Amino acid sequence: MLSAILLQAEGALNDSIAKTAAKIAALPDSLSQMTPGKLQHDLKTFHWDTLVQNVTNQCVNLAFRILAAVVVFYLGKFIIGKLHHIVRAILLHRDVDKSLSSFLLSFMKITLLFVLVISVIGILGIETSSFIAIFASAGVAVGMALSGTLQNFAGGVLILLIKPYKVGDYIVFGEYKGYVKEIQIFHTILTTYSNEKIIIPNGGLSTGTINNFSAEKYHRLEWHVSIAYGDDVKRARQVVLDILHADRRILKDFLPDEIAAIETVQPKTETDSEKNTSFWKSIFNHHKVKQKVDDIKQLGQQQLAAKIPKKDCTPYVAVDSLGDSAVVLVVRAWTTTENYWSVLYDTYECIYERLPQEGLHFPYPQMDVYLKKN
């Protein structure tokens, strides 16, 4: 038993020696034949000046790269800050929505900082293609994971740029309707008459059908009034027209804006001193040139508006239908958007009070039954 164990240990030792010898044989000749004397000779004959010079050159190059990277980084930050202030001033001057302006400024700053960091990394001598590939892959992954959110984001940007509605407008979108309280990047918040808060994703709003009730300054109202058979229709028409004409909030003929647009601009006559002004001075007079351009533009707009047929806003009453139990009159009139609901309800109340005073009747649903005797 003991002899078997010794033989097994001797075999394992021989295998270890053989493997070590094979590794030594696999080494280069310079290492396998290295001796203490040879090592001492090589150290004495080694060119240390060349090594020091190479290390010094590398350190100097690295120092210059770091210095250039620091200068580019701070110079880039300074330029980005100036661009941020310039773009912000332009957006404020053009009265761009605050939500859109803050988003655009943040997006621009982050993008420019990313480009600056990549440039600094390249100056330091680090390969930037791998960083760009990593960011691109991460962007694709995030885009696939947040496809719905990105759609709402794109819709919010379109809404803030195109402005189909603004804060304070009363809009109708499908089954939702209310006043626009806030336009965010991803959602639009509505407030209903009962003070309910509705949050709608911008993706659907940017591609769906929106009825913006506040987009126009004037709106037409419509009432349906029923009178009994046998009542005087002309009398009912005259009473309703008297109610409408007595209300100052209701327009009586044409839209005021269309009337003003038809009036042409009288050309401004120049004085003798203005005529004697030199040609070059008139060209470089910015305010005078701007005024002439504005006058020409306004004249063109008014001439175009004059060719469009005017919209007759005279109050109108006619027989709409003959119902089973009543003669139905349709009443139409125009008013401003802010007076729409008050005029609507006040006119209903006036019609209810005036018609019975004029001998007119509101019918009730009725059915005549004839009994035939055998």
Overview in brief:
The chain has about 375 residues and is α+β, with helices and mostly antiparallel strands. The protein has 14 helices and 8 strands.
Overview of the structural elements:
With 374 residues, the protein is an alpha+beta fold. Among the domains are: 55-145, Helix Hairpins (Orthogonal Bundle); 166-212, SH3 type barrels; 218-267 and 300-357, Alpha-Beta Plaits (2-Layer Sandwich), CATH 3.30.70. The chain contains 14 helices and eight strands. The strands form two sheets. The chain has a five-stranded antiparallel sheet. Strands 6-8-7 form a three-stranded antiparallel sheet, with helices on one face. The termini are far apart. 9% of the residues are buried. The model is unreliable at 261-268 (pLDDT under 50). InterPro entries: LSM_dom_sf, MS_channel_C, MscS_archaea/bacteria_type, MscS_beta-dom_sf, MscS_channel_2nd, MscS_channel_C_sf, MscS_channel_TM-2.
Q: Mean pLDDT, nearest integer?
A: 77
Strand order of the largest sheet: 4-3-2-1-5
CATH class of the domain at 218-267 and 300-357: Alpha Beta
Strand count: 8
Largest sheet: 5 strands, antiparallel
Taking the alpha carbons of the first and last residues, their distance comes to 135 Å
Which range does the strand content fall in?
5-15%
What name is given to the CATH topology of the domain at 218-267 and 300-357? Alpha-Beta Plaits
The CATH architecture of the domain at 218-267 and 300-357 can be named as 2-Layer Sandwich
H/E topology pattern:
HHHHHHHEEEEHEEHHHHHEEH
- Low-confidence runs (pLDDT<50, min 5 residues)? 261-268
Radius of gyration: 43 Å
Number of helices: 14
Give the helix level as a range of percent.
55-70%
- Please state the overall shape, judged from the principal axes of the Cα atoms: elongated
Structural class of the secondary elements?
Answer: alpha+beta
